[in-house]
Amino acid sequence: MNIIEAKKYIYIGGEEMNKALKVFLFGLMAMALFVMAACGGTDEAAETPVEEPEETTEESAEEISDEVVELDGQLVVYSARNENFVQPLLDKFSEETGIEVLALHGADPLQIQEESGNVQADIFISNDIGALGYLHGEELLEGSNPEGIDTIPAEFRADDNAYFAISARSRGFIYNKDMITEEEMPKSIEDLFDAKWAEVENGYAITRGGNGGMIGNVSALRYEWGDEKTAEWIAAIKDNAAGIFEGHGDIRRAVGAGEHSFGLVNNYYFHQQLLEPTDNNVGFIYLDQEEDQMGVIANAAGVGLVAGAPNEANAHAFLEWVLLPENQVAFVGESLELLINSEYGAQYPPEVEPHIIEFADLKVQDMPLKELGNYFEDTKALIEDSGLDLDLR
């Protein structure tokens, strides 16, 4: 019986019944100690140490107290993902386990580092596996062995399972079909070196440098090209982009509305724009698919166990819970990302389903995703040094 099943079993009798049962059992133990003490009239009985049963009683009381905390306690989740994607998942966990979830949405991964001397979070949810890898490298995430971890391929998790990914995405260009055709669109990430793309109708859009998707994109280019060429690419897109936005959701809406011809986003933002009641005449270019090209840049979203988690038992419960097939599907939720375990059957709206392309059908950059963590912090410095601000000004 795993921890999730155990929780469900204990909850069958209701909280009040559990508490009453614990009080009754504790009372029986105390009565037994009293009788033993009263009957100790012989020398042999007097020589029998009473410390052992007393220590056992104290340990039992502590175990009962811990169990109450585990069942009725809290789970603190820091999340860097969109609240609309994460909160329904956390609500589902709370409803099924009885554990209250306190969520901080919009959290920066470096907040985990800043709080390392006074740990507040139990779980960190990231839309960038590089951020999880960075925290793990700084020993801010802790290894574990939750039931179900074998369902996650090795390339999508840390060697000690301190973090693992559940959903994945790739980079590319969303474009407005009323403004530019598929044939006219750039087909490689390297194409953005050319200033001619600044001349297309209303130009193209990118995110600020500190956006998680941009950091992962630049980290992948550093792996592929080295820092010098990557810095030149950053300078080029900063100079040539017609719009710099806070996030990819802003870009998809701007492209759909015709404010820009195309924009650099993750593929699931294209899926989301297809569901808009208007401004949905958009397409998507998966980049660098030719034989001599590097392949599309990929990234993944997942969870990490914070080292020194205040509610460690509940954190482990969450890891096992989210690894259940139905909850891996729930993790994808409204984001419309690609499920790593596609056989679990993530459901996509009919407007999106014909446009879903699995990674197996794409040429993907030959880079272990766990490598992104080795570039995370230095990449932000390179982006700034190359002239692209991390935050909008």
From TrEMBL:
Alphabetically list the UniProt keywords. Ion transport, Iron, Iron transport, Membrane, Metal-binding, Signal, Transmembrane, Transmembrane helix, Transport
Locate the residues binding Fe cation: Y268, Y269
Tell me where on the tree of life, at the top rank, the source sits.
Bacteria
Q: Where is this region: Disordered?
A: 44-64
Q: Name one Pfam family in it.
A: SBP_bac_8
Q: Which GO terms describe its molecular function?
A: metal ion binding
**Bilayer-crossing regions:** 20-38
Q: Does the keyword Ribosomal protein apply?
A: no
One annotated Gene Ontology cellular component of this protein: outer membrane-bounded periplasmic space
GO biological process terms held by the UniProt record? iron ion transport; transmembrane transport
The record's section on InterPro entries has: Ferric-bd, SBP, SBP_1_CS
Which family does this protein fall into?
Answer: Belongs to the bacterial solute-binding protein 1 family.
Matches recorded under PANTHER family: IRON-UTILIZATION PERIPLASMIC PROTEIN (PTHR30006:SF15), THIAMINE-BINDING PERIPLASMIC PROTEIN-RELATED (PTHR30006)
Q: What is this protein called?
A: Ferric iron ABC transporter
This protein's species is Halalkalibacter wakoensis JCM 9140
Q: What is the lineage of its organism?
A: Bacteria, Bacillati, Bacillota, Bacilli, Bacillales
